[in-house]
Amino acid sequence: MQNKWGIKKIAETLSFKLKKQGNMYDCKATLTRVMMALDGELTEAEEKAFLIHLHQCSPCLKKYEIEKSFKKFLTEKLCRQRIPSQLVDQIRARISSIAGS
Asked: At what angle do helices 7-14 and 27-38 cross, to 10 degrees?
């Protein structure tokens, strides 16, 4: 049977706490940092703390690797396409008319 990873299962899997040497690591917050790390949005201090946590927490490291490979997969499969400027203008006008309602 195939393991289905829907939003609920992912959230349940990632919302755990891990005790390590008397300290409580917030693995839930680490997931947020995973996304920020992959996007290059962590400060130097945040990145250092993040890497220390990954080094000490194998479940978070595994989740980081999963997210990293998924992002790589997506970037390899997606390609940018040029959108006609007329279409962009029509979409903006439509959004403005809806927002103004």
From this structure: 120
For the chain, the domains span 7-99
- Output DSSP code: residue 94: H
pLDDT given for residue 59 in this prediction: 87
Burial class (CB in 10 A: 0-12, 13-18, 19+), 79: exposed
Q: What 8-state DSSP symbol labels residue 8?
A: H
Strand partners, 23: 20
Identify the pLDDT of residue 66. Answer: 92
Please list the residues that pair with 24 across neighbouring strands: 19
pLDDT category at 4 given cuts 50, 70, 90 is: low
The tokens of 30 are what?
A: 């680490």
How far is Cα 16 from Cα 32, in angstroms, rounded to an integer? 14
CB pairs under 8 A, 24+ apart, for 7-12? Answer: none
